Amino acid sequence: MAVLGNIVRTHPQSIRVVTDTNGNVHKYININVYERKEVARNGDTHYIKAGVKKEEKRDDFNYFIGNIKPSQPQEEREGTEQDTEDLPF
Q1: How many helical (H) and strand (E) elements, i.e. helices and strands, does the chain have?
Q2: 28-67 burial, b for 16+ CB within 10 Å, e for fewer?
Q3: I need a surface site. Which of 3, 43, 65, 79 has the fewest CB within 10 A?
Q4: DSSP 3-state assignment of 21?
Q5: Which of 76, 69, 9 is nearest to 36 (CA)?
Q6: What is 40-61 written as a DSSP string?
Q7: Helix (H, G, I), strand (E, B), or coil: what is residue 14?
Q8: Which candidate, 73, 53, 58, 83, places its Cα nearest to that of 2?
Q9: pLDDT single digits (tens) 32-75
Q10: How far apart are CA 55 and CA 71, in angstroms?
Q11: Is the pLDDT of residue 14 over 80?
């Protein structure tokens, strides 16, 4: 299943910087995806929060990142094709 999402904010304090054995520097952020108790009005079924270790969590900070909803392919609708003989060019 494909999903669509959006990122509302970034969390610089949650970004981890790691250098691999070849000397390449990588930045990443741990995330947790949670299922909503009820589907939101706009169809969101899940939400994303920054994954932070318990000992690093702050009570005064909101770790919410964004929302997710299932991606549904557009169904081809009948009658959307135009007859090209009627076009003036």
Answers
A1: 0, 6
A2: eeeeeeeeeeeeeeeebebbbbbebeeeeeeeeeebebeb
A3: 79
A4: coil
A5: 69
A6: -TT---EEEEE---GGG--TT-
A7: helix
A8: 73
A9: 999 999 999 988 999 998 888 888 888 888 888 888 888 876 66
A10: 36
A11: no
Residue with tokens 């009570």: 59
Q: Residue ranges per domain, the chain? A: 3-71
Residue pointed to by tokens 């969390």: 11
Cα–Cα separations (whole angstroms), residue 59 to 12, 33, 80, 88? 16, 20, 53, 65
C-alpha 62/C-alpha 73 separation (Å) is 33
Model-level pTM? 0.62
Structural contact between residues 44 and 35, judged by C-beta atoms closer than 8 angstroms: no
